[in-house]
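tool_log.txt
---
The assistant was asked to compare two proteins side by side. It first ran the structure predictor on the initial sequence, then on the second. Raw inputs and outputs are pasted verbatim so the downstream comparison step can read them without reformatting.
(1)
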Amino acid sequence: MKKQRCLNLLFVAAVIAANAVGVSAQSRCDAAGDASADNTSLPWKIRPEAKSGNWAAAMNPVIQEMQRLFPQPPKGLEVTYGIYDAMGIQTAPANAQQYYEGFFMIKDIVCVKYQGRNNIEPEGETGNWIYFRANDFKGFAKNANSDSLTLASTALPLIEAGNIRIEENKNGLKSIYFFNENDEQEFGGWYFSARTSLPYVKITNRELAASYREYWLKKFAAEITRLEGVLETSKKTYARVSAEKGVMTEAEKQKFFASLADSDRQTQIAIDRYKRQREDCIARTDRMMTGPKAAADAFVKNINTLIYEPNDLEAGGKGRFVYVANRAFYDPKLPKWQPQVITVELRRQDTSAAKTAFTKKFEDEFDFNVVRRMVGLPPMPKPPTISGMGDTPVRNTGNPAAGADQNAAGGESGVLFAEDFANAQVGQAPAKWTVSNVTGIVKKPSGQPGNWLAMSKEGLFFPDYAVLALPPNFTLEFDLSWPKGISYYSPSFYFHLGAAPYDNTLKRYDRALVNTNSYTSARMERVALWIDPYWNGEMGRYGLQVFDARGGYKLDKTDKTAIYYKDKNSVKVKLVRSGSRLAVYFNGTKMTEDAVLGESTLWNFFGFGVSSAPNAEPGDEFYVTNIRLTK
């Protein structure tokens, strides 16, 4: 359904672009080219369905607030407002709850010089949208598979999805999150409703079993009946051909009958298979409906309505929940079109300064009291905005005024963070740390004083310390060690300094973007210092790498050092930031200094990693302690 909606919206975009060509065809690109396009103003475009009717009336406060913010779309942009029918109202049951969305489509105005065209016009497609979805349960279901499986004895489609959670921040703004089995979150948007319940519910194993059974028994019965009809038709065909004279020779008839008999055998095999699957379905669903976990939330690998795959109903620790629309959520006394829950989603793929400025103004100034009133919530005394309410805007780490966690370790002036694991329990992961695998535990290495964080498997390990932006001048130091017997094939140790998306409602880095399962930590801009303790000629190696947010190299430099080596198995690492410059010291000796830190980038993350090393020995690991961040 969601894919179809996107296709429909792209079709809408194409139609609008085609119409815009005719409007702007008289505006030809001048010598300034793109500069002319950037300075072109177009009026608001309001689609016909947004001008009249119940849905238009319900969504009118939203467009009025947008027009308050943007009386005229900014130069260089075309902004279109429309309403999308997300339910297919022409085919929906007469009494069905109506769900629909008001959308804003934001396009750059561009200079097009191609195949004889020389026009200033809106771009053909855009990745920038703002959605206001009313009464739309399916909007909650990311990567869901509803197909035709419905809750038993109803027409309500079942939806497979990760754990859906509505989280409220300290200022009262609610956000929608989707969590997978790795506890990686995906931010879905903002949630508004006066209801204490939710517009969806999880179903139990008993309900899933009944739904699965109802669906497949009907399907098996239909297929068995169809195939038994094929056998009856075959009998009639055999009798007809046997009685025919002069159409086929006896040899041809015998060949035809042999082919018919072979086809009948295959048909009977299929009938027998469906009958076995039918009995298996009954037995399996009987166990699910009467077993010890019958009342537990259904948790599945997959529900396949094309192929009978009963093993997919047993998640075995990995899987997704099964949801259905909550019919009791909606007040039956209200009109079916009246918004009782609204979700807001901002999709931004900024490709221009104009789009970035538009989205920022929306986040900073759109008064969500408008939406609160639409669903029966009381207005808040201070106009709530995305950034002003302290939630996480889609742009990187947010608004410093919103106040993410500014964790400070102790009362010593200038100390932002300090950790020596003295209070951690040996053999366990340290508290208030995110570790990507079971090797991230506290140990007492042989020959080293105190407690250390040990890491041996590929991954990312970082303290749950988060700031919106590290200061422009700071020093970060730590002690690093490894076993003297570390092998030549050991992994490399990594230290990361990054610009990590931070979620200010959950108070943690975005787990889907800060990849805890890989030392590369892809999808965030970062600088990585790596250390290889075992090179050739009693030398160690180190390197400095700079990556963009897509994981592409911007800098990659390598050098050797005699400061540490296999058996010289400890080194004090110090990194000093001064604006854009980052200096690296080993045991007090400056090894490198480079202008690698963009001063406009919100550097807010540090962590440790171990690279992949499939040929490493079991004892190959690294230890870190005495971590200290000062300004």
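(2)
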Amino acid sequence: MRFKYLKYLAFALGGASTAVATGALYLYATFDGARLATDLSHFTKQRHQRTLRFDGAVELAMFPRLELRLPAMSLSGRNGDGECLGIERGTLGVRLLPLLARQVVVDRVEADGLRLALRRGKDGKLSAADLLTPLPAEAPLEFNVDRLAVTGGVLNWIDEASGRNFALSDINLGTSRLGRKADGRLELSARLTQATPLTDVRIELQTGYRLDGDAGHQARSAHLAVRGALADRAGVDVDLALAELLLPTDGAPEASGLSFVGKDKSDGRALELRVTAPRVVLGAAGPEAATAEAALRMDGKGYGGQLRARIAGLVGKGNLLAVEKLSADIDWKTPAGRLAGSLGGAASWQADSRVLDIPALAGELGLTAGKSGATPLKIVAQLGGKLDFGRDNGGGKLDLRFDESHLQGSWSLPKLSVPNLGFDLDADRFDADRHLGPIDGATRIDAAALAGLDADGVLKIASLKLGGLRLERLRLPLALHGGKLATTAYTGNLYGGTLEGTASLAEGNRLQWRSYVQGANLAPLLRDMTGREPASGALNLFIDVSGAGQTLADVRQSLVGQARLRLRGGVLRGIDATAALKEWRGAIQARQPARRPYRDAESTPVGELTVGFEVAGGHARSNDLQARSPTLAITGGGSIDLAGPGVDALARLSLLAVAPVDMPLLGSLRGAAVPVRARGALGKPEWQVDPSAAPLAPVKPVALAQPAPPPPRPVAKPAPPRPAAAAAASAPATPPVAQPAPAAAPVAAPAPAPAPEPGN
């Protein structure tokens, strides 16, 4: 009995196969490709006002499967405006039975050389919007695709609203079943190019999917990879992964297992950004997430570190997206030092006005200078502000407290699209030597760390200690652009005087410094800088130098420029000129050298002193030293070794007036130019008389006012002669400065013995 039913089934299937085969042969014999092309062209013209052209006949193939083979074809824009779509050749797999009823049901699409041109107008309308509407019931075309394949495709996108245009080329796309309800996998690869900003990347996408027109759509195990030059950045590597993406028909999209990794190796440094979120709901007001984490890491030559941020309670409220808790961990290292710590607070996002508001981030940071000897600095920080993406700007306040110092002020970003930091900061005091380390020859200079940064602002410090010096009311206008840091027209007070000038640090560690000090008290300045007071007086100093190097010692060796110094009411410490000449009297008469050590208790008034320097090769050289007091005139020159610092100078001392008590010993030296050499440490040189010193180049005399001549004395009878000792005892205590010394040598008279010029 069972075999009887099988026999009936076999006869039925055979009959059906015969009928299908007969229908297929009939279809093949009666198929009119030209008529089908005409019907399709007529349909697109009537419904979309577009022109569909075929460069040949549509062919029907029976083997190895039933399919329509399309020649090169093109579809125009609306009302014949350019080309919207085109292919070099294509294949449409169709079903037999609907085709017998003059209906085209497509179950497989293959396109080679696909061309798409899409445009969004200034009104926001898409040029292909009419093609995306569902087909009417009477349309002779239906899609129920089991496979879609595109090779060598090109897509051009023109956005007239934003002015952003791009092109996708070398498109290769492959999918499984597509339909109202389908389950399959998609693979896509393409090349994305754009002129502004410069972009040339390779894109690869793989994902599984489930399509359900009633319940919604799903993507699973999705992975997007982008490699190449992106947004003017070469060497970009981006990976985006999703465990699942739900697109319900009646709810907000939801993503789970989100992972983003972006890497950038431009500018000789490696940047890496990682973002993870267990679950994100993309609501109408913005994303919502219970938790999310982001980590930014940078590795560069001598600098880098990590910034890790965590958010909790990301909730949308209408147009407001609020973050209940935002925390950030900072660990950043630069050649200047390392900054580490944590900040926390709240944040919000206003969707309609596009404003990110972070009212206050508070926490504690630790700053450790990269130089040995620096004291770690604990900073209690509070900062906040707003970023207005609608107006393309931002700004806020900051408040930093450390030790006994307080820094506060404001920051701004005039243009978010072109990041340029502005700031206006005030500090009451800062000890740079303590917290950043002492400044010495080993101090490194790294202008490369300035690359890619842009900033403008003003830093004001009420009291600053730097290099041992104390500056008051310092005002530093700063500008950082193109890898160059410059301060123009900085001002301040320095030991009772004023300070002003300009400085810059540029690519290649090129340093330029121009400064003018006026009326500074020299003694405490030298004491704080060197620990000694080799001189005192009111200082005027002009410096204009430039140099380059990896360390401060290198810069000192390469310095080129000039300097000029004037000292009023000057006093030279370490030597008493009168006592020294007494000690050297015998050596001077015998024209023999003699030494004298530096003596802390001695000093010599030098009155007004001027000297100019030429700076080169790590030395400051001069031959125009001049000084004059009521009792002493000095001329000379020499060299200062900036690395020591050390001094090798030759001065000629001329006594202008001698106290009566010293006349027996020094009377013969009055007006004579005694060559005296100072050699050794700048703050504590050794002195010696050097009769063999060569003459210096002529120098211009110091223009000083001469005292008025004494009034004429009345003529009196000559007194009887007295012994020499009695005459000396009755002489005035201090002879007039302008009183000439008979038979005295000129002030600048050189010693006769030739010798190499000192300090060269």
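---
observation on (2): The mean pLDDT is 81. Residues 164 and 196 are 8 Å apart (CA to CA).
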